[in-house]
Design brief:
The protein is mostly helical. 74% of the residues lie in helices and 3% in strands. It has one domain (2-232): Up-down Bundle (Rhopdopsin 7-helix transmembrane proteins). The longest helix has 44 residues, at 113-156. Mean pLDDT is 78; it is low at 165-169. Residues 1-229 form the G-protein coupled receptors family 1 profile domain.
């Protein structure tokens, strides 16, 4: 939902005709408020996915009670926390819209340097640290489980069977490492330029037109995230292929085996 709403925010960027904002100063402030709240919720969802995978691998017996039951609560807290945090950070711009606009038709907000640093740690440093730590832990546990499986198979199976299991386990380990690398690298590439701009001055003035490139790059992270997670699942790729090639329109397509 958060990534989809980020896509809706792009309509406001598209409406910046020749750098001119047509919706007024109040809508400009509300646009930036929604921007921060929704993108922060999207990043928070990435962290929650990392927690979900960590519990599923490291403590699977507790997964139904610890994650399944608490997923809605954690998702709601993510949205509420994002709204409260960024509402406080941008309340001055909402109360006095247009106070930093230098001319008619400009959409800009000012972010206090201290608030910018706090936002930097909340939506960039913190999520990256949590994601890396949890995925490294998941990778370590998966590798230890793979070694245990290999040792048991090696004791009971023939040499050919030992070789086939080794290949399968190595592929699983590489897939986990590849997922971690792609998620973190894309996150860094999409968000680094934005924070370089907003933290470059004592009080950063962020304009929807002059900062359009870094803002769109920031949004791009929410576009890529669903693809990173979804396309690592073979069944999802098969379903997408069926839709794109119109096989889904053929009789009996609902009975196709995609698992």
């Amino acid at each position: 939902v958060s990534d989809f709403l980020v896509g809706l925010l792009m309509f406001f960027q598209i409406m910046l005709i020749d750098g001119c904002w047509l919706f007024g100063d109040l809508m400009c402030s509300l646009y930036f408020l929604l921007d921060y709240v929704i993108t922060c919720s999207s990043i928070g969802t990435m962290v929650l996915i990392s927690v979900d995978r960590y519990v599923a691998v490291c403590d699977p017996l507790q997964y139904p009670s610890r994650v399944t039951e608490g997923a809605k609560l954690l998702g709601s807290l993510c949205w509420v926390g994002s709204a409260l945090c960024h509402g406080l950070m941008l309340r001055g711009n909402v109360q006095n819209p247009g106070r930093v606009s230098s001319c008619a038709g400009e959409c800009a907000v000012v972010i206090d340097h201290a608030a910018g640093i706090a936002n930097f740690f909340l939506t960039f440093v913190g999520p990256v640290a949590v994601i890396v730590v949890l995925y490294v832990r998941v990778f370590a546990v998966a590798a230890s489980q793979a070694r245990a499986v290999r040792s048991r198979v090696a004791a009971a199976a023939a040499a050919a069977a030992r070789g086939s299991v080794k290949v399968t386990v190595n592929k699983s380990e590489m897939k986990a490492a590849r997922t971690l690398g792609v998620v973190v690298v894309v996150f860094l590439l999409c968000l680094c330029p934005y924070y370089c701009v907003t933290l470059s001055a004592d009080d950063a003035v962020v304009s929807a037109s002059s900062a359009a490139f870094v803002i769109c790059l920031y949004y791009l992270n929410s576009c890529i995230n669903p693809l990173i997670y979804a396309f690592f699942y073979p069944w999802f790729r098969k379903c997408t292929k069926m839709i794109v090639t119109l096989q889904i329109l053929s009789p009996g397509s609902s009975e196709a085996n995609v698992l």
